[in-house]
User: Fold these one by one.
Assistant:
Number 1:
Amino acid sequence: MNLILLGPPGAGKGTQAVHIAEAFGLLHLSSGDILRRERKARTELGQKAQVYMDRGDLVPDDLILAMMVEHFGQAKEKNGFLLDGFPRTLAQATGLKSRLESAGTRLDHVVSVEVEDAEIIARLTGRLYCPECGRTYHELFSPPRNAGVCDVNGEKLLRRKDDMPEVVRQRLETYHRETKPLIAYYGEQGLLRTVDGIGEIGEVSERIKKACRA
Ligand code: AMP
């Protein structure tokens, strides 16, 4: 089974993708995570992507498509793939379609996780992470035991540059302009399943699984 999780930044796609990929035995490919790894390793791609990411803009389509296609091969050892954060533009979606067609495969479901803008802003601007161990927290929903420091190692917690309020607004604008048209695009192909993204993590996972079994 090949799936896409679609939705605004902060809709919980990353968290859900881990659960769903495990439940269905899929290869989880998160474009944001791959880009962050490339940045950390200071590769050429990582350095090019950095400028766009810190502004809350999209990285150019050709770079993203080439990067994602490189990882698709690993899905052969699994029951398929689950794409999270990709595609984010119509050009990426059509590029993906033709790559899959030439590989003799196709998408089964595109699940749109729906969350309103006001909720997204509250979720994203409260996110914190530990630069040492990578553990994530939220000021409101899952705060550390002591404000501002990691429970595991006492390191000072940081906010991702792209979770700063002005960048979050920019990311949401980009989502509405570039990514939302994909909902209609996949709807026309009969692939779209819509799921309410508000609720406990387990509840939302169940909704997604149900949508993919239907
Ligand atoms: P994410 O963690 O998915 O919110 O991604 C973080 C940032 O990486 C985004 O704000 C973009 O700058 C970049 N990015 C991730 N996926 C894509 C994509 N499919 N197309 C373009 N840029 C992307």
Note: The longest strand covers residues 109-114.
Number 2:
Amino acid sequence: MSRRSHLARLRQQSPLILPSVLSCDYSDMRGEVQKLEAAGVQALHLDVMDGNFVPNLTYGMPIVAAFRKLTELPLDVHLMIENPGRYVRQFYEAGADIITIHEEAAGDETARILQEIKELGAGAGVAINPDIPVERVMPFLEIADLILIMSVNAGFGGQKFNPVALEKLEALRKAGPKDLLLEVDGGVNLETVQACTEAGADLLVIGSAIFNQSDYSAAIDELYRTAHVST
Ligand code: DX5
Ligand code: ZN
């Protein structure tokens, strides 16, 4: 079964919280994944950074492959790397279900790389940082499965939410096809999560607001209760 079949399920269940495992305990990945599964999470968000596109360095294919062995949850892989087209096949082979590239890094190659990701059989996403106008992703609304709106500058967990993301989500919700997944990433917590869902976000990537808590399940439940769209 194509990994692309996860997309419809994620859409159906949205809004969904995707833990960003950037801040998990890497000495106990198995335990961390078990706790997240027990908390009922539906997908994991993995942050790949190259120390070049962003001023931070995390991990590459081997860690994605390790998560693949530990869980059947869809893996949403956020590539914060230069020249992403060079690596999409390898991340697919490592087990990524959704692969998101940055428009700033892919430039003129963005559409071609999104197409390649889809042909491989994964969900294709395109991301922009807070200082990039939303117009830059408008050409990809039909070809991308997912648009990732960064609400902090890509690179580090624990930064403050930038509300410019909300206007972009609203604009994309209006302009994009119904089944386009909108994801928001950075500084999403109890103070900001409801504004994100109200602006139209389907996938809420959350790192420190989960991993800074001792009980992930309680943290996620509270975030869901707060995310509930009131209108
Ligand atoms: C930042 C990453 C995020 C990060 C989110 O560049 O893309 O996924 O882990 O962490 P918090 O929720 O702490 O902002
Ligand atoms: Zn991310």
Note: The domain at 5-227 is CATH 3.20.20.70 (TIM Barrel).
Number 3:
Amino acid sequence: MNKQVVKVLLPLRLDEPFDYVAPEVLQPGSVVQVPLGNRKSFGVVWPDSTPCNLPIDRIKPVLAHYDCPAIPQVSLDFVDWASEYTLAPKGLFLRMMIPMEDGLHSNKAIPLYDLYELKGRITPQRQQVVDYLTEHPCRSVEDIEEATSVSRAVINGMIKAELLTIKDFREEACPFQMPDVNQSGPTLNDSQQVAADRLIQRVKDHQFSATLLDGVTGSGKTEVYYEAILEALKQGKQSLVMLPEIALSTQWLQRFEERFGVKPAIWHSELTSAQRRITWRAIVEGKAPVVVGARSALFLPYPKLGLIIVDEEHDGSYKQEEQVIYNARDMAVVRAQIGNLPCVLASATPSLETMINVQTAKYDVLHLESRFGGATMPDVHVVDLRTAKSKKEVSSQKWLAEDLRQALAETVERGEQAMLFLNRRGYAPLTLCSDCGERLKCVNCDSWLVHHQNSTKLQCHHCGYFSSLPNQCPGCEEKDTWVACGPGVERIAEEAQSFLPKARLGILTSDTMNTPKKMAEIIGQIQDHQLDVLVGTQIMAKGYHFPKLTFVGVVDADISLSNGDLRAAEKTYQLLHQVAGRSGRGELPGHVWLQTYSPENPVMQAICKGQRDQFLAIESEERKSHGFPPFGRLISIIISGKHRYDVENAAKALARVFPHNESVQLMGPSPAAIAFLRGHTRWRLLVKSNRRYPLQKFVKSWLSQVELKSNLRLKIDVDPYNFM
Ligand code: ADP
Ligand code: ZN
């Protein structure tokens, strides 16, 4: 037998593959099972030519070769690249590529059940199963569950009690079908057609390209990129569409199904383990023609990928902040480059990064000028909260100015829908004692507890800690002295209800829409006009299309302008634009009301006058003058731990050994903006260089000089997006 040493990468926090011996030659990408300590793990044979120093008889053997297609070479290259760029271990990328072991086995045989013996007590629930199987013999547990209203536990109980028995098996079928590529979509208008033609050509080119699809909300970007998907389908290629918060994108999925007649494969963190296994297997076998996913879908092993679309490319949720820290929007472009395929970035408010790539001709651009079907952009009205009139109207108990109230009331009277936007969950962001000023703070974090009315609980929005409102103030021991300060959405809803007693109000936040099902329910209620006024956070800002929604009131347009984030202005602009874009999407014209203390701020000016590109030009100059991204590069380092002094000492030790280098600048060390989080102290160091400097290499060599105590955590964030 000709034994071979192979390198196998394991799905662990490891950068290098391990050596194993295999009885035969194994191609890179083969998925194998290997021993790891006293357990077994799957791993992927990795292309790596570093010689092995151990004698062959001391190397552990490969135990088995999974019955699974090999991971394509492009996917292996992508992991190597992404790991080098983000400084995160390769093994963690592998874990995103193969997030479960059970998908590696070939398709399962699914047992089909039939009635066996009717004995014992037949509850009404069990009777439902009996009735169903009498009419439809030989069904799987899933079939029974779907057709009756009975839970899986009841069915399993019946199997255990031998009321049901296995009669036969069925091969698990791939649930994803090929759409009919000959069915035609809507007739595109001229600028849509030009854009669609160009994207179709890109798909036919089989080459890398990056294209920004730039068009206002409602201009038909989705219809246009559907045409590119159609072309990829014709070419027998897979398409990946990335959406922010896919678990909540019910409207998008409905539309896809209407257009293509089949459901796409969906990938996000809330899939059940069975859905995950089946979807993964279909993807790696090339049987999922269109995959719609959150950022994690990017690392799946597509054998025939022919197109990537990143919708709402500017969206902050493409940045993953935990475990492996990466920006899926940027990585999508890299994946397209490695795989020689087109990538399309779609947005009405492209990120400055992307705009600069367009200006320097790295990316192509396609414009959709206006809203489809003559729908117009909304009028913007500004409420200057500094004027005497506003000061009288907006006080410590009221947050909606008179003009806004009136316009809102008129909207509801006309039978149209309205939205009030405030990016703050709960009733009030701060609760304090009116006697001594004591504020209720989280025990684990540097943050105030937020009062949620529905739960009568105070909650920390960072760590989830909650407590009930204490009877007496822990500071002065007085009773009944708590006052709520400032508004959250619940309080705004209360205010709106006070002058619109008959209006049907809905509060739309991640608290009320925390599952895809609840989300779909509420979206349905809005579509059916069972709600008149929506009071929502940014969860409502994205993507939705409600033709009857004609009024948007932004309660506090300044909220995110001053949070010490270098992208604060850009993010505020994007958010306000997206929120404003919810109104007037049908035949009725839309109105937007912005309440602000800084009407002269370039962000407000740009929103009012619809001058996006002027705003981006100002913002771009601002960043350039500071050498901030996209004109410079940043890597952020956060050290955290339970012991304050250990954290501080480690941060200072790192700063002491910072190599002198003219191209690189160190900012910090200093306590992070949230200096105490989930019981951990946090210190930050920020490293800055010019665009072209190989900053990762520099940081890697610098960090290797200090050995951190094992009770400390080091987080490296390349291209940071969050500065908290
Ligand atoms: P965007 O993605 O740019 O926000 P959408 O693709 O969602 O825009 O289009 C907005 C609305 O207009 C959708 O309801 C869409 O179905 C409709 N629409 C866009 N283009 C066309 C077209 N050519 N024919 C018919 N309806 C269209
Ligand atoms: Zn907390």
Note: The radius of gyration is 28 Å.
Number 4:
Amino acid sequence: MSEPAASAASPALAPPRVRCFSGIQPSGAPHIGNDLGAIRNYVALQDRFESIYCIVDFHALTTTHDAETLRRRTREMATALLALGLDPARCTLFVQSHRPEVAELMWLFLTVTPVSWLERTPTYKEKRENQPEDVNHGLLTYPALMAADIVLYKASVVPVGRDQAAHLELSREIVRAFNNRYGPTFPEPQAVYTQAPVVLGTDGVRKMSKSIGNTIEIFAPADEIRRQVMSMVTDTQRIKRTDPGRPEICNVCQLHRFFGDDYEEIWDGERTARTGCVDTKKLLVERILRHYGPARERYAELLASPVIVDRILEEGAARLRPIVDATMAEVREKMGLR
Ligand code: AQP
């Protein structure tokens, strides 16, 4: 009798799932730019890929130097991701420094990375200007750590905002340089974007960013969110209430696209001056609070149970150990370290 054909569902023969990885810095309070540009995709991709998400505290050390602040923000960021929909049964959530092998892999990657590649990174140039008193080496080597973050887990799908495009391109070059020198080892990571790859800040000019302070926070008290939205710069050419608005260039109107399906009606009100900027902002506050209402409740509950969050993070790091051990054994062997 011939053997039955192996079923596609057979666990022994199922093809390995493609891995997805992304990291977020615990450098401040999460904002709607983080969510619309990246976290929404973390949540959506949990079921499509074997997904691994990380609070990148090593990265945050380049700008955050107070131990208690870093510890608190790390737990708050993990709490935020869980509140926004990451489910430890469907993805792995952990803290970067809990798998310190990533620092070893970064060092190994630095030996295949020309300094000139790192020096041309736009965020390095930016940070050098923004914090001239603290141009630490971590700011320069950030992309090598990012490459290590991703491929330590042999992940190839990376949900990020568009501001990370240059970093990811450099990560790909570093991985390619390693593969060229030591033989095919790592997949080249690819970015995946949401419908809102760049969310502008309340100034309406620069990307929303914790370090700039032009954010609309997700978990701040309602009054603070109201203050942040009401301070938004709108269409600067709309001087009088009766002037027609230009929704295409008004950041408040743009944000309405993501908090309701009637944004065209709202835009029409602006164009015809039926509504003014203040009305449109007030409505946005309402919509944001309604949209994030359930997540804000979960956040408050989880924040009151830090033991639960810490356990999820510990289990996440432990779950990754076999993958990390296998990658590092392969890399050390290929590089002649054993
Ligand atoms: N404004 C944004 N629009 C779209 N996506 C964004 N992201 C951040 N800001 C926007 C995406 O969110 C993920 C996590 O980002 P991060 O906090 O680790 O670092 P970041 O990009 O540097 O965010 P910030 O707020 O600007 O942090 P600071 O000020 O500390 O440097 C990333 O995928 C990012 O693309």
Note: The longest strand covers residues 19-24.
